[in-house]
Specification:
With 295 residues, the chain is mainly α. The chain has a single domain, classed as Orthogonal Bundle (ABC transporter involved in vitamin B12 uptake, BtuC). It has eleven helices and two strands. A two-stranded antiparallel sheet has the order 1-2. Helix 1 packs across helix 10. The protein is globular and about 55 Å long.
Length: 295
């Protein structure tokens, strides 16, 4: 039982980072109907930029964190304005190909600037000391990671629900034409959506990079988040959070108990096994909107 609880706790920590990135994924889709396949590269860029500021330029971690968030917001706005806005009205497959090309460009730029070797935050941002939470032994870095992720999730959930901008984003998500007729700038909402999507992904990259180190494979985080988004429902911000936490726990438990029998690697494919099962049973996710087409 103690081992099972340990797996749940560590799964929730990684799942909280999944939830952050999944929320950005769902937000962009909900507001713009675009599936952003460059979300994992936003994670990669955020992790590397913060590491470079903190370890390379010796910027205090608070300022490195804030500067990284500003850069992420600016990156999201620029990419939306230069690459995605001209694609409004174009076939959806063309827009998807643009995001795939964007992912390749961002990954190549990171490789050129910082290489592919694992980078570690030095000195460590959070203590690696292990403490007991009841019967479960948890490293302090895991607690800090979960705490920061929970704060960001709470802040953005409140932002979407209570602020004027958040209400405008929800209106655009429901019906763009009606929102525009009420004086809401759809293009402005698109820019804000991409900025927030890049921001939460960058924060996820920093949190995960502080645990495992940073290298080029951090971009795979975006693909592993996709099952979490599908589980919760592409249009649901709350569903993305629940999906991220669920996938984090499931992959941890499946990897621990099945690796012994299958020779390893289960943890890496567990999210995609869950994805296949979800699509077979409930293709719109737990909280997704079921679309009915009449012909």
């Amino acid at each position: 039982m103690q081992e099972f609880l340990q797996l749940i706790v560590t799964g929730l920590v990684i799942g909280s980072a999944y939830a952050l990135v999944a929320m950005g994924f769902a937000l962009i889709y909900k507001s713009t109907s675009i599936i952003n396949f460059a979300q994992g590269e936003f994670v990669l860029v955020g992790g590397y930029v913060c590491w470079w500021l903190y370890t390379g330029l010796h910027v205090p971690i608070v300022w490195a964190f804030l500067i990284t968030m500003v850069i992420a917001v600016f990156m999201g706005m620029v990419l939306e304005r230069l690459m995605l806005r001209p694609m409004i009205g174009e076939p959806i497959i063309s827009v998807i190909m643009i995001t795939i090309a964007l992912a390749a460009v961002l990954k190549s730029m990171v490789t050129m600037l910082w290489g592919t070797q694992i980078k570690v935050f030095t000195p460590a941002i959070f203590s690696q000391k292990a403490i007991y939470l009841g019967p479960v032994l948890v490293s302090e870095v895991y607690l800090w990671t979960f705490g920061f992720a929970a704060v960001f999730l709470g802040v953005f959930a409140a932002f979407f629900k209570f602020t004027r901008v958040g209400i405008s984003m929800r209106a655009v998500a429901n019906d763009q034409q009606v929102a525009q007729s009420m004086g809401i700038s759809v293009k402005r909402v698109f820019a804000i959506s991409w900025s927030i999507g890049a921001l939460v992904s960058a924060v996820g990259g920093i949190l995960v990079g502080n645990i495992n180190g940073i290298n080029i494979t951090l971009s795979d985080f975006g693909l592993k988040v996709f099952p979490a988004v599908i589980l919760g429902g592409l249009e649901s911000i709350g569903g993305a959070i629940i999906g991220g936490l669920t996938i984090g726990v499931l992959e941890n438990i499946m990897g621990s108990y099945l690796d012994v029998y299958l020779g390893g690697g289960v943890k890496e494919i567990a999210p995609f096994i869950v994805l296949i099962i979800i699509l077979m049973i409930k293709p719109y996710g737990l909280f997704g909107i079921k679309e009915i087409e009449r012909v």
